[in-house]
Amino acid sequence: MAILGQIRSKPWLLMGVIALALLAFLVNPESIDKVFGKNPDVLGKVNGEKITREEFNDQLFVLQQQADQQGQPKAGLEEQAWQLLVQSKLIKQQFEKLGFEMTEDYFWNQLQYDQMFAQQQQFFDEKGNFKTQELKKQIEDMKAASPEGYNQWLKTRKSIEYRLMARQVFANVSQGITTGKKEAEELMKQRDQLADIDFVKIDYAAYLQKNNIKVTTEDLANYIKQHPIMFKAEASRNLGVVYFPSQPSTADDAAAQKEINKLFSAGTDASGGAENFQNTKNDSMFVMANSDMPFSNQYVMPNQLPQTIQGQIATAAIGQTFGPYKEQNFYVVSKLLDKKASDSTLSKHILIAYKGAERSTATRTKEQAKKIADSLLTVIKGNPAAFANGLKLSDEPNAVERNGSVGWTTPQSQFAPGYLNFLASNPKGSTGLAETEFGYHIINVEDKKAGTMGYKVAHLVKAVKPSDATEAETDKKARKFIQQVQGKSFNDFVNIAKKGNYQFSNPKQAKRFDGQLQGLGTDKDAEILAWAFDKKREKGDTEFFTVDGTGDKIVVYLNGKQEKGTADPESVRDQIEVVVKNKLAAKQISEKIGKAGNLDQIAKQFATTKQSAQVNLLNPSVAGSMEPKVAGAAFGVKKGQLSKPVEGGTGVYVLIKKNETVNKQPGDLKQFTESITQRNAGMFGQAWLKSLQDNAKIDDYRIEIWNKVGSQQ
User: Fold this and answer.
1) Cα–Cα distance between 433 and 425 in angstroms, integer?
2) Distance (Å, rounded) from C-alpha 143 to C-alpha 138?
3) Residue 457's closest CA among 275, 281, 316, 268?
């Protein structure tokens, strides 16, 4: 199963079925049908084609597995999963419009070009041929031996099919992108043409420093009307959020310090004061019984120790203690238990996994796995050469190709503790059995070599955390605040928060399935979004939330409701206010310029200077700013004639063209045509996909489903 082992080694590619938290309703499907009057397992449609809940769950699982592998948070991926599904449906529709069909022959012929296989040499023979028949046979064997694994393959195949369709569609459409001879000749002319100009620039920023312009909601709305496609909006909410963290007080800090001192030298209550951290005979048990952090039996490098003791550990004696000292919000006392050279170990293993083990696709029980591992170990101990044959039974991806090797490791390596403990406890040449969260490992210690010194240190830790009294004070403060703002305007909400010096944030376009709120990022974010999107919610509503396990409080104010359609002006103020303000400034500046006779008059009027530049249509840089409208005006105005005011990106320009010249660039028409075609093809893909999405009929039922089912719970 070597090829399929490659797939198992990337679990995010195995689109398994998991319950989506936001849609995992504890409701009988038949009762849901009665509530909805339609199939609740259809979350939306793209041009009439359904997006099912199963598809959505599968796509979300892929993203969550990717995030987990990369050490990223798994929350807030629902919207990304939805967008990927929408794009996949659009690609599939274009694939079929082009006359293609995802047949069995097509799939297997194109599979070698998919990203999962194309760069993996083990999928090809020595002549470069894809091992199609071998892979097919392994899948057939899996179908009979492992229904669970086969089901995962079918889900993986669906994601591969979408990628293959996308590859074909983009290849075909890109072939249609060409550059005509006339177009290329005109572009070459524009590339080589230069205009020498004198100009005056009235910079927006400088003008606005002297002339205050207030951008009204109406101004924003007018701009949006002029650019309707840019401001197509999904449903969102404008929220005011005030966060009340329950932070330890000075008294809480003193209490933690007193407790660590007591445990360090005075003694525990359980021992009647007889046993403390300094005199205990069982350091691990003492730490486990009295510390806010668990005991670690690992040997670590000095740089992995708390910074306070890193410089002292090398000369310390066994049994020496350090502290008490403070590390962030913890008081710590430490004791050196042992030190030894940190051996590097070369090892290989055979993994026998079982159903339920970490990353396992095996269907055998744990008891069956243990029986197989014990039997195999007995054979290998009797004949070490049998290890190579045993690798064929390994559930580790590529075990045979890699001879089961995991390379060189140290006690600090990011490996399962059970595996590392076996290596630390057994000499070179040993073969034995170890259990980890991945299953049973038959391990052979191939070699060992001495390394840097490692230290085993016991840390007794007491967290500085808010007391019940501190949490009660935080709760009191938050409840007083919500009483002050109920029934008040949003401006009052903001001003009261600022007056109290509270942590305020204002996510203006929070979407239902964002998962996290900008400026907040707590476990309550999803619950706040559900509250904000409840159909009973009205502008001006407030709510109080408690973050589980921390005592932190959150007060939320619903400042605005944006339904699907054109964006509410105030919800996009942060994005467009500067642009709109510049446009208002440009209008004022142009009116003030009026019918000025020359550049010197304009420069004097606005207290600026006349400048010179050489501009080009394809590279429209003017005094360090890209200004295509200015370049266009330079070639559009007659020589020696004063232009009309030009509304540029960074200011208003008035110019006079002094001369036009030609600076012939190297390269013939054919080369230039090819470069333009290649550039356009590279830019086309994403723009084309966005255009498809902008013009598609996309029905999203997720909020409706959630609200209706939620109201039944």
Assistant:
1) 12
2) 9
3) 316
Instruction: Give me the pLDDT at residue 376, please.
Output: 92
If you search the block for the tokens 């892979």, which residue do you land on? 135
362 phi and psi angles, rounded to 5 deg = -70, 155
Q: Which residues contact 289 (CB under 8 A, 6 or more apart)?
A: 268, 270
Distance in angstroms (rounded) separating the CA atoms of residues 712 and 506: 31
**Are 56 and 41 a contacting pair, CB within 8 Å?**
no
- Write the pLDDT tens digit of every residue in 482-518: 999 999 999 999 999 999 999 999 998 898 888 888 8
pLDDT of residue 347: 94
Q: Which residues contact 64 (CB under 8 A, 6 or more apart)?
A: 12, 18, 74, 77
Burial class of residue 260 in the structure, from the number of CB atoms within 10 Å of its CB (0-12 exposed, 13-18 middle, 19+ buried)? buried
Q: What is the pLDDT of residues 326-381, one digit of tens each?
A: 999 999 999 999 988 777 899 999 999 998 888 887 888 999 999 999 999 999 99
b/e 241-254 (16+ beta carbons within 10 angstroms → b): bbbbebebeeebee
**β-pairing verdict for 646-647 and 651-662:** antiparallel
**Residue type at 677 in one-letter notation:** T
How far apart are the C-alpha atoms of 488 and 481, rounded to whole Å?
Answer: 12
| Alpha-carbon distances of 371 from 352, 364, 377, rounded to whole Å | 10, 11, 10
Q: Which tokens hold the place of 303?
A: 């740089």
SS3 462: strand
pTM exceeding the 0.85 threshold for the entire prediction: no
